[in-house]
Amino acid sequence: MKTTHILALTLILAxxxxxxxxxxxGGQQASGTEGLALELVSGAPPSQVSKGQDFxxxxxxxxxxxxxxxxxxAQVFLGxxxxxxxxxxxxxxxxxxxxxxxxxxxxxxxAGGRENIIFTDNARYTGQNVNYDQKISYKxxxxxxxxxxxDICFAFEGSQVxxxxxxxxxxxxxxxxxxxxxxxxxxxSLTEERSGQNVLIKFVVENKGRGKVYxxxxxxxxxxxxxxxxxxxxxxxxxxxxxxxxxxxxxxGEGRVGSTILCKRNMQGASDHVSPIRFRLRYKYVETSxxxxxxxx
Length: 297
Hints:
Elements: E1 3-10, E2 22-23, E3 36-40, E4 48-50, E5 54-63, E6 74-79, E7 94-96, E8 114-124, E9 132-154, E10 164-165, E11 179-180, E12 185-195, E13 198-207, E14 212-214, E15 230-237, E16 242-244, E17 261-266, E18 273-296
């Protein structure tokens, strides 16, 4: 029966290098580093508006990663100005995705789900100042998951079943022989080594996107600073692993900045074998974008 180890940990935001040996794996797979991409729409708003002119505020969300984003799991915020200056209410400044945004199948050339997010069709500048540049800010905040599936070698040196040998990753941080999901959060190092009767597995997580990572419970409107760089990680396996930092079973534990996730498998009485393991990372991702709107008479 599968055992799921849940870890709530603080991310390591600088890539750590490990010199330990790893299972011999063939082939490499490049991974994408985007989740939900927020795209500005030309003409919405236009680059220039005159006083009293009606216009639209709209952006597009496109899923470029490997996780389905359910309806309502993404929020987009419009800001950077006083809403009443452009005839907007507070409720029009925050929108959610109405449809499920399906994951992209990048290897097959299949695009992910896409949705236009319309804040308003009837924005109108009503202020007194004219002939100036108004900054517009957009913020997306969404729940996402990244995962890696790999076959792990549980064996000692000289095994005829599998071999612990060098080459766990290449210079670009790609895992060899692993299936890597596309997303801004990546497991960039997965290594194994022997220690007495134990096989040790270590993995490192890095933010490869352009935004910030928060715990899945963070408030999208104003993310709590103490939840920045925190994630929920799960390790799914049939192996009797003892992982730190974590507690056992369905409980959770908290890591620290710079901590490494270390899983140990006692091999006493066990035969050499290869076993699949899935690493799942759940989090909220926040990205911002800006534009400029010129206001004329």
